[in-house]
Amino acid sequence: MRLLPLFLLFGCAPALAQTPCQSTGGPDLVVADVSGVANYGSSGNLEALALGKVYCNVGALWANCSANTNQHPIAAPGLFRLQTVAGAQRFEQVGVGWCFHSSFALSGSTCCNDCQSTDGTHVGVHCSDVNTASSSGSQSGLSPRWQVNAFTGSFPYPPANPSWSGSVARRLAIDVADLEATGGTNSARYFGEVLLVSPDEALAGTGQNNASYREIAVTGSASAWNFALLGSTTSEASAIQAWQDADTLVQLVAVQIPAEGLLYLASRVTPLGNGVFHYEYALYNLNSDDGVGSFSLPLPAGASVSSVGFHDVTYRDGDGIGSVNQDGGDWPAQFAAGGLSWSTQSFAANPNANALRWGTLYNFRLDSDAPPSSGTITLGLFKSGASVAVAAQVPGSAGTPSCFGDGSAGNCPCGNFGLAGNGCANSANPAGAQLFPSGATLPDPLTGTDTLVLHASGFPGSATAIYLQGNVFLFPGAQLGDGIRCAAGLLRRIGVVPGSGGASQYPGPGDLSISARSAQLGDVLLGSGAQRVYQVWYRDPLASFCPPPTGQNHNVTNALLVGW
Question: Where in the chain is the domain with CATH 2.60.40.1170?
Answer without folding.
Answer: 249-396
